[in-house]
Amino acid sequence: MYGEDDLSSLPVFAGGFINFGFWQDVAADQRITVEQRVESQFALYRLVFERLGVGAGDAVLEIGSGTGVGAAWAFAEFGPRELHGVDLSPDQVARASAHAQGERLTYRQGAAEDLPFPDETFDVAVSIEAAQHLDDLGAFAAQAYRVLRPGGRFAVSTFFAPTADRRGELAARLDTFTSGVDRDHSIPEVVGHLEAAGFGDVRVTSIGEHVWPGLDRWIAQLGVPEGEWPRRWLTSYRDGLIDYYVISAGRSAGERMR
Fold first, then answer.
1. How many domains does the chain have?
2. Model pTM greater than 0.90?
3. 178 in any annotated domain
4. Quick one: which of 128, 177, 202, 246 has the fewest CB in 10 Å?
């Protein structure tokens, strides 16, 4: 789905992004415009970058940068010293390369579990709606820790199960879990991997109330009837099977690589 077919071209995403959006500023009683859908996806990036306090002196890595639209926007909006995107799909990297700007904004192919960068390269690392695809969250956390400098900041934003005790139920409701595109990871599992990698100050914030209702309204506007699987994201959230999170963590300023 991230190859020649270009998932980002589907109307559900709009604007070249591939994320569910942060809908806090979209009124619940109005029809959603394409511009508002695109803005919801910018808003998710804004939320994460503001959480980490990204500024002019930072070297930033986006893990799972997709088509590069989000990274390019964040580069212009927050003005970091440099921003680099890495994605497993060569097709996505080829699309993202259209947004590259010399050595300060670049994209390359690579796996989240084996990042193609030296130790202690970045001040900030982010991963927005990508970690749910990964099999090995332990390797992902360890690699993010490795490429951050002491004092570096990390944030993951995507959907996970709140607990691990209902594993398998999402696959019965949502096709992306049935097919294995998305993995049934839980928040305790994610936090455990971050702490095992060496991260401290792990903070988990649920933002589902500003994701799932807006996304469901948008999908309904596209003509998907209630009961079809894309409309089950919201019901799965309401039934406690899934939520959307921003998870931030830090690497101690005084700690060197082990």
1. 1
2. yes
3. yes
4. 202
